[in-house]
Design a protein that fits this description.
Oligomer: single chain
Strand content: 15-25%
Mean pLDDT: 88
Number of helices: 27
Distance between the termini: 67 Å
Number of strands: 36
């Protein structure tokens, strides 16, 4: 049917084919979509080019080809539930795509699709089908037929050499009309399907609709050519776009399975290495593996997803993206137990993933140690709690069945996650295996209430750029008048912080105006700007635009459309008019404070690598005029000594007076030179690099040309920076703490902020010395002496409380009840601590070495204790706590937890709870 090609060869074939046809090969963007708050993960190939389609960006090329890393585990695009159940779904996958931005259109796209599939890859022409659009919807004003039938695409298909004209089929909006979002760019699409043969029909022998877009698996969609030609407005209007685009997507795993002639994506060479590792660990034969293939599929998929996520900086944690990484690792670990894997094993599977994909995605090899360490660490962490969590879940499911119910309350499922780390998806898996389910809406509500997670993904809501067409019209008009060149407003925040030029346009309340008045909120367009647009964690510039008799205070700058930069501000004097001469000036005091913090951020990143290791990668940042914030991947809190070392290293680098070199080069060149790409950032094909050169370099020549001079740090960065590190002044770490599980956060100040902090702390120290009646140097010794004195007093107080509690407890021992021959005591001990409660529990067992059960409460803390003979009768200490309305767990004979209910009412339930549990 086709040539036997490896997966890597197939990917390269696709890219090479389109490069030969004038396309620029563009690297995959990160799984974390840079600068896009509407998405949890990159979930399709078009995410990288979204800004081009909505009109707020323009690429230096009009044709592109790529293989994009994608994740679909949240919101509208969520394939998690299907993974493992079939042979085609994945959480992580690659999407091959070729793109035209106002260049070629249907004729070329269709012809090249046919040529690649049939001539290069040798797929049989008589087995291929093409679907085109025919409107079947009354969803928009104008009713059925609002969009013309795409006969143009149909006719082009019929022209392809060897194509069967009867294989052109027409379908409606669901199958063959594509929208980026609820409103905005959209258009018809043409899908390519292949007939895999009757033997691939999973419903063979049963009555069903067999055909393209049918009910069985015989016909498989391979490729979707989207023709973006309309703009959809909120009132239902569809208007032609100024330029037509092509957006195609072909599932990489799917085409590999077809070209390799296998009936499952998981039987391709993309997964061979992972499956071989798993079989070597389980000892299963290939036949045994295929007989119970679901766990193998889930593990291979999830290990691959986790490896790519961690390589892109998304480590396991409790919230948002980090929750997804934790969840898929834990879900894979649980499926491992189904095939006898009870020790950490995912790192071994990930080694096979890195071997398969590392050549094309070098971030996997670069972050090998971080990937393997995080996988094993998370498996070990999960193993500590999974048994208790699943046992508790089983109890809840038993209660559900006893009540003739089918759906577990979502709040209870959330308690399992909060207490035992059992993700919702695992609770749901276990419930469904028993014919039950879990309330997902309730789980999410509980999660939101407790602020544990930071939100789930959604498809695409408001995309931004809703007014880009309006500003594009202004740009076109200004270009026609010769006021702006083909690239629009000149953007140079690096060398032109004060520019002069006329006001080209004023926009007030969404309308172009000829003049603005005092207090108006206005957007101003000039021929050139030196204001920095917020990006890469660095806040945008503020400043002023001034004329002869007017002034506008600028609070923000934005890219309103491709080629249009709008200064947002308020008129604070006079009446600016279109055509007025103007001077735009950045607030340089504020800018310098920002630059100090940004250059210091690069030094901090370097110091963290030196002190903690290369795994300490950026996971988010804020560069503001007042301070800097830096999030980084690190499983444990930094020690005081580590924090001190990092702070010292940064200040030493500042004192070295190292030159900061800025250079623009291709992304590919910068990566080959070792420039560090930062988490969640979006990079174009041409990038700005920041090199901090080792002391002694003059900085006169580009760093790669400086003989014997190496870089202290080298990062891709579009932000603004100082000329030399000494301009930072001083660097002080204000705090180090947890930003999320596996993510630490450092906040720091530099320059003026550092001086102000030093002054504030020194003033506080002098005040403290005065209160202690000591010199500043003696403060630590004085404080230590006071702490020792307080510690002695606390110990004395604790001894008194213990004696008091013991005395009261001795009196309470006479209140023991007998429940089915078990000596039972439920009492509240005021003013005790946990250690005292445990001591009293031991005393109870001394008094009743057999047939004993007690529940002791102080405040909200509760301890339950049982003698071993009672445990053998089917009672667990934790059962007593949960039975009276508390939460907790522990050993069968001793458990600890919390009790928030009325204590007297809760303890009154104890005899009945014990009686029901005793066998």
């Amino acid at each position: 049917m086709s040539k036997k090609l490896t997966g890597n060869q197939i990917r390269q074939d696709f890219i090479d084919f389109f490069v030969e046809r004038g396309h620029t090969a563009v690297p995959s963007m990160s799984l974390v979509p840079g600068g896009d708050a509407t998405l949890l993960f990159t979930n399709s190939g078009m995410v990288q080019f979204k800004d081009v389609f909505i009109g707020t960006d323009k690429k230096p090329y009009t044709r592109a080809v790529d293989s994009q890393k994608c994740m679909r585990v949240a919101g509208k695009h969520n394939d998690l539930e299907d993974v493992g159940r079939d042979d085609t779904h994945h959480t992580f996958f690659e999407m091959l795509g070729n793109w035209s931005f106002g260049d070629y259109y249907k004729k070329e796209a269709i012809a090249w699709s046919w040529q690649l599939l049939t001539e290069v890859w040798g797929l049989p022409k008589d087995k291929l089908y093409a679907t085109c659009f025919e409107d079947d919807s009354a969803a928009y004003p104008g009713g059925k037929g609002n969009v013309p039938r795409d006969d143009e695409a149909g006719d082009i298909w019929k022209e392809q050499p060897g194509f069967d004209p009867s294989h052109v089929l027409f379908f409606g909006r669901k199958e063959n009309f594509w929208q980026m979002a609820e409103f905005g760019p959209c258009g018809p699409c043409s899908e390519i399907h292949i007939d895999l043969g009757e033997e691939r029909d999973n419903l063979r022998g049963r009555e069903h609709r067999c055909g393209v877009n049918g009910e069985c698996t015989r016909f498989l969609e391979l490729w979707n050519n989207v023709f973006i030609q309309y703009n959809l407005f909120e009132d239902g209007r569809l208007e032609p776009l100024p330029a037509k685009h092509v957006d195609t997507g072909m599932g990489f795993e799917r085409i590999v399975s077809v070209l390799q002639g296998v009936d499952s994506n998981y039987k391709t060479d993309l997964f061979t290495g992972s499956l071989d590792v798993l079989r070597s660990l389980t000892g299963h034969s290939e036949k045994e593996m295929l007989a119970d293939f679901t766990p193998y599929r889930v593990i291979c998929d999830h290990a691959r997803s986790a490896a790519f996520l961690i390589a892109d900086g998304v480590v396991p944690g409790n919230g948002g993206r980090n929750y997804v990484t934790r969840m898929i690792i834990r879900r894979a670990a649980r499926f491992g137990t189904k095939i006898g894997l009870n020790q950490p094993f995912l790192a071994k599977v990930a080694e096979a993933v890195i071997a398969q994909y590392g050549g094309f995605y070098p971030e996997l090899e670069k972050n090998r140690a971080t990937i393997l360490d995080n996988l094993t660490r998370e498996e070990v962490r999960f193993a500590r709690t999974v048994e208790a969590g699943t046992a508790h879940l089983e109890n809840l499911l038993s209660e559900l069945r006893a009540a003739n119910a089918k759906v577990l309350d979502g709040h209870k499922a959330f308690d399992l996650y909060a207490t035992y780390g059992l993700p919702f998806e695992i609770s749901r898996d276990i419930a469904r295996e028993q014919g039950l389910d879990v309330d997902e809406a309730g789980f999410n509500a509980a999660k939101e209430e407790h602020s544990v997670a930071s939100g789930g993904g959604k498809a695409m809501g408001k995309l931004g750029g809703e007014d880009s067409e309006f500003f594009a019209g202004i740009l076109k008009d200004l270009q026609a008048k010769g006021k702006l060149g083909k690239d629009g407003v000149v953007y140079d925040p690096y060398t032109s912080t004060q520019v002069e030029g006329e006001i080209l346009a004023l926009v007030v309340n969404g309308e172009a105006v000829s003049s603005a008045s005092l207090d108006d909120q206005v957007e101003v367009i000039l021929p050139k700007t030196g204001f920095y647009i917020e990006a890469g964690g660095q806040v945008g510039d503020e400043g002023y635009i001034r004329g002869e008799d007017w002034e506008i205070e600028i609070s923000a700058v934005r890219r309103a459309s491709a080629g249009v930069i709008a200064h947002i501000g308020q008129v604070i004097s006079g009446q600016p008019k279109v055509g007025d001469k103007a001077t735009a000036e950045v607030d340089m005091v504020r800018r310098h404070n920002i630059m100090r913090n940004h250059t210091a951020t690069h030094l901090l990143h370097k110091a963290l690598h030196e002190v903690l290791g290369d795994h300490a990668r950026q996971a988010g940042s804020l560069v503001a005029p007042t301070h800097l914030r830096f999030d980084f991947t690190q499983p444990d809190a930094m020690t005081p000594e580590q924090i001190e070392r990092v702070e010292k290293m940064v200040n030493e680098a500042i004192a070295e007076d190292m030159p900061v070199h800025k250079e623009v080069k291709s992304l590919d060149e910068a990566r080959k030179e070792g420039a560090m790409a930062l988490f969640g950032e979006k990079y174009g094909e041409v990038v700005r690099t920041i090199s901090i050169l080792d002391a002694g370099s003059s900085g006169a020549k580009p760093p790669m040309e400086q003989d014997g001079q190496s870089k202290y740090s080298y990062e891709l960065c579009g932000g603004t920076h100082l000329e030399r590190t000494s301009d930072i002044g001083a660097f002080l770490i204000v705090s180090e703490g947890s930003a999320a599980a596996g993510i630490r956060r450092i906040e720091a100040v530099t320059g003026r902020g550092a001086y102000e902090l030093i002054q504030k702390r020194f003033k506080t120290l002098k005040q403290t010395a005065g209160a202690l009646k000591s010199s500043v140097d003696e403060v630590p010794l004085k404080v230590e002496a006071l702490q020792d004195e307080v510690s002695d007093l606390k110990k004395q107080l604790a001894d008194l409380r213990t004696q008091s509690a013991l005395s009261a407890f001795n009196a309470m021992l006479s209140n023991v009840q007998t429940v089915k021959d078990v000596n039972t005591l439920g009492v509240e001990i005021p003013n005790a601590d946990v250690d005292t409660l445990r001591s009293l529990a031991d005393k109870f067992r001394e008094k009743h070495p057999k047939n004993g059960a007690a529940v002791l409460v102080t405040g909200s803390t509760v301890i339950a204790v049982l003698t071993e003979d009672v445990v053998k009768r089917g009672v667990k200490a934790g059962d007593l706590i949960t039975g009276i309305g508390g939460k907790g767990g522990g050993r069968p004979n001793l458990a600890q937890g919390s009790l928030m209910d009325n204590v007297k009412e809760a303890l009154a339930k104890l005899p009945k709870v014990l009686e029901e549990k005793l066998k």
